[in-house]
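Translate sequence into structure tokens.
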Amino acid sequence: MRDPLETAKRFIEINHPDCDGAMLAGSCARGESTATSDLDIIILYTGKDSAYRESIFYEDWPVEVFVYTGDAYHEFFHNDAARAIPSLPRMVSEAIVLKDSEALLKMKEEAKRILAQGPLAWNERLINHNRYMISNLIDDFLDKEADGEAYFLANSIIHDIAVFTLRTNKHWIGSGKWMFRELRNMDAALANQFEKSLVAFYQRHDKQAIVDLAEICLQPYGGRLFDGYYVG
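Result follows.
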């Protein structure tokens, strides 16, 4: 494939010459591109608030185009922050500028501010609810043979423990691979424990490693919860 940065610049010059700003984001901007990477291109226009996303091929590159007109990106920033998965703010903060503008600079500054601020902290109600739900999953997990149901329960427990650990530490969460990356960014040793607990179950059907990990993550907040849990 051709150079991603130069290809992205040509794409803008040919397809969006009148845009008010553009940047290359994703793995290509971070210098982590692989044979299956695509070009994530964010494009700004002036005008009435609107947004769209388009997937196309350009010069043999798969291209994901994210177009925002006016202040439409503010809603996406807000929604990402509310669900604690800052997909767009992270893309924008890491992006390489293809066409500079005041609007683009403003967008980048806001993205960095959101990332630095972090998500809203969980309150006691949310912490206890998640302790209770994880406790129920563990009980079901221990009750199952190492079959299909147990594999799905293992995935659910690991995911929910990861969310619990990150959110109780006022840290962003992620989707798919980004969940592990967020864990690793917060605590590399703990992320390694997550990985090892899955390996122990998948390779040796050892459930205890996952249960022990859950106990470690829940312990600072009172451990597993059943007796006394109340919602009304």
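Note: The chain has ten helices and five strands.
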